[in-house]
Amino acid sequence: MTTPLNIQVILGSTRQGRFGDKPAHYILGELQRRADVRAELVDLRDWPLPFFDHPVSPMRAKITEPAVVAKWAAKVGEADGYVIVTPEYNHGYPAVLKNALDWVYAEWTKKPVGFVGYGSTGGARAIEQLRQVVLELDMVSIREAVHIPIDVYLAVMKETAPAAPELFKPLREGMFGDRVAQFLDKLIKVAHGTKAWRAEST
User: Fold this and answer.
1) Whole-Å CA distances, 86 to 33, 81, 127
2) Which of 50, 86, 155, 169 could form a disulfide linkage to 12, CB 3.0–4.6 angstroms apart?
3) E strands, 64-192, where?
């Protein structure tokens, strides 16, 4: 029997009154419906990482201090792939998300990542910038992404997470088909491939 993939849904905003916990819980629920996946929500509110100030890049040496950084690296290392849920602030993504990415290197590498974006343009500009960052971390960014449109945003924004899944139904309809299924299918397929790739590299 094949071991289920460990996919982490990383909630990339810690802002008060944030919207991101709604799509994060929705994507988590969709992943948990799949027999070949073990999904987990990783909320950056639970990881009070200091601003990156280490004299040595994690690309060159594993960082073990402070203790929260070592624990963060261990958590990241458990996953076979990631979904990063990000808002768009001023044409970019949150500083807290960049900081969380910067503290780790080896644990990210050779693993797929997909993005769920919201805000102006459905988070498209934030996601495009994040694709450049994860490339340098030697991650595999899938082409597909989920961009939360304004009608879904307005329908969900006042809900308490987890919001009713039917509020996200427009993401699964229309001329482009079921964008959520396409997104998760690609992420999982690539995760299987990169897991085998990592095994060959050890």
Assistant:
1) 23, 16, 8
2) 86
3) 81-87, 112-118, 140-147
Whole-angstrom distance, CA of residue 108 vs CA of residue 37: 18
How far CA 36 is from CA of 20, 82, 84, in Å, comes to: 25, 15, 20
The answer to whether residue 161 scores a pLDDT higher than 60 is: yes
As a whole number, mean pLDDT of residues 100-126 equals 97
- Picking from 150, 44, 175, the residue whose alpha carbon sits closest to that of residue 103 is 44
Q: Write down all domains in the chain, each with its CATH number in brackets.
A: 5-201 (3.40.50.360)
pTM over 0.90: yes
Structure tokens at 73: 């690296």
Q: How far is CA 123 from the centre of its chain?
A: 13
Whole-angstrom distance, CA of residue 58 vs CA of residue 61: 5
Residue 92 dihedral angles phi and psi, to the nearest 5°: -145, -175
CB 61 within 8 A of CB 69: no
Q: Is 161 helix (H, G, I), strand (E, B) or coil?
A: coil
